[in-house]
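Quick entry, no commentary yet.
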Amino acid sequence: MKRLFLAAGLLAGAAFVAPLAAPAAEAATLDTVKQRGQLACGVSTGFPGFSMPDSQGTYRGLDVDYCKALAAAVLGDATKVRFVPLTAQNRFTALQSGEIDVLLRNSTQTFLRDASIGLNQGPVNFYDGQGFAVRRDAKVAKIAELNGATICVAQGTTHEVTLGDMARTRKMQIQPVIFERPDTMYQAFFAGRCDAMTQDASALAGAVSVAPNPADYMVLAETISKEPLGPFTRNGDDQWSNIVAWLHYGLIEAEEAGVTAANAEEQAKGQNPVAQRLLGTSGEFGARLGLDNRWMLNAIRAVGNYGEIFERNVGAKSPLKLPRGLNGLWNQGGLMYAIPFR
């Protein structure tokens, strides 16, 4: 791909999505999904740890597990999902047009995305920050040492904007090399086309973990932004948006209450009132959303609680080995806090 050296001023507006009117409300998404018998879930074209097909073509990752949990909650079967791989450029259009039912594609929540594109931002399911990957032999330890560097960045992302903001505020000379797709950006960086690569720090860790020679690369400890990632749904369908939101809160509540994939059935029969409400033993909570009262029991049995999802895909049990950090529970120093089920 030809290198594109853009001025920082041009870079600043590249990732903003043009304002669009909210689409007219048609059939409720829940009814559509039930009638279809399958959830259409928008995911990335390949981010290790979040959504990426394995050697057998099976999608795996944190976002993938959220899709499976949603299918289990709504349809009673975590396998009834069609994963739709989307680029940064077409992800929001796919949701606006109804091609997908929900977007779970490590997408940053921002003011403009909330106010301008007719979509609803759900709860944050991963707190991240924009970072930089470099070659170890470059001996770069701090972002300031990237002054004058060529930096690979994906088109149509908040990373373009933030990179331009950083260049202006820090008075750094940055030469961005723009790529339409993250996978081609990775290939270019690992082939030596750029001095550094910028993206969410978690995505960089995933890319490095599957690089030709992972030990040759590192992700700098510094980040330059807040990147709260989470699901998007269409405006005007409160029932569906509530289901997506409360699914997340339920996964957090389950971790806090000690409800796991292995013990969820047993916990549903126990005496813990929080677990009883969460798992459908009391309270009719599922029915209030138009679902079976065992909706969260089905979701947790399929993928586990939030902690299980995190550890399996991006935490200590994964190649990424990311610390919980801000993604820990609120009572363990993190920001994950569930609105109570009561």
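second:
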Amino acid sequence: MRLFPVGPLIGRKCVADVKLDDKHTIPAGCCVALGIYQIHRDPSIWGPESGKFNPDHFLPEKVAERHPYAYLPFSGGPRNCIGIRYAWLSMKILIAHLVRNYRFKTSLKMADLNIKFAIILRITNGCLVSIEDRSCSPV
């Protein structure tokens, strides 16, 4: 969800002036687009290999060092997804069930992925995954 966020871009309307620093202020009434896809791949946040999957990014000590809005799989702040807890719990249960019962393989490499930005992020060259039932094969 970091490298391929479902919602790669979100829009907000500023209801008050937002001071970014001494020189920059976003005036009230402006519409702002936030590039979650770009934030999730920013080398200043995620390191020099920000485009690679690294589960160590989510170790408790790494999370504590990072700004709370550096990872936004369900948006953030008062307008984040109201179903965030349900979504996380549902995904964890589903993934645990699938990984326990099936073996997943793909020949597709990260560099081969073609993605399309829309309301949701999509892989345009298909999800080339083979699924094998673990109960039918020797472990």
